[in-house]
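User: Please fill in residues for this 162-position structure.
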């Protein structure tokens, strides 16, 4: 099986929305709003910036012309390290292609790009605390627990916005 990795294009938006809907349901039991999600994916793929802030970038993995996996990354400035950390997000691989090297190639491609960019000081991601399979995969690729707990207040899910 030959796997190729490339940057996402507008023609990938539909499959990326589908991947995100399925991933949210599978990993967190959440049903995302499809319209909001589609707008968010489109903003990343077409390169829309929000008040000068870039949204991110998707990589997709293909087998025989079919997109079978994807990941998105965003940027975070680290004053402690005087550089940029790339955050992996929206990781999804079609179930029948899992454990066949799809995510490994996506990750290795992104890691290579990061290592070749002198501004990038590392890679991070967050993973559900009980998703032991994903945690094991990330560890095999060289990632380790940061010791931090992610906390959040999401205004889009709060009645107190504004």
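Assistant: Residues filled in for all 162 positions:
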């Amino acid at each position: 099986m030959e796997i190729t990795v490339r940057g996402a294009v507008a023609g990938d938006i539909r499959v990326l929305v589908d991947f995100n809907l399925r991933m949210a349901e599978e990993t967190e039991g959440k049903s995302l709003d499809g319209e909001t999600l589609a707008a968010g994916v489109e903003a990343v793929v077409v390169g829309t910036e929000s008040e000068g802030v870039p949204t991110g970038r998707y990589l997709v993995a293909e087998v025989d012309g079919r997109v079978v996996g994807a990941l998105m990354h965003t940027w975070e400035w680290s004053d402690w390290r005087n550089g940029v950390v790339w955050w992996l997000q929206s990781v999804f691989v079609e179930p029948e292609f899992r454990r066949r090297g799809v995510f490994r190639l996506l990750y290795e491609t992104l890691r290579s790009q990061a290592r070749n960019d002198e501004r990038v000081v590392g890679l991070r991601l967050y993973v559900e605390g009980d998703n032991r399979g994903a945690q094991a995969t990330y560890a095999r690729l060289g990632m380790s627990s940061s010791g931090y707990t992610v906390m959040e207040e999401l205004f889009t899910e709060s009645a107190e916005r504004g």
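For context: The longest helix spans residues 13-28.
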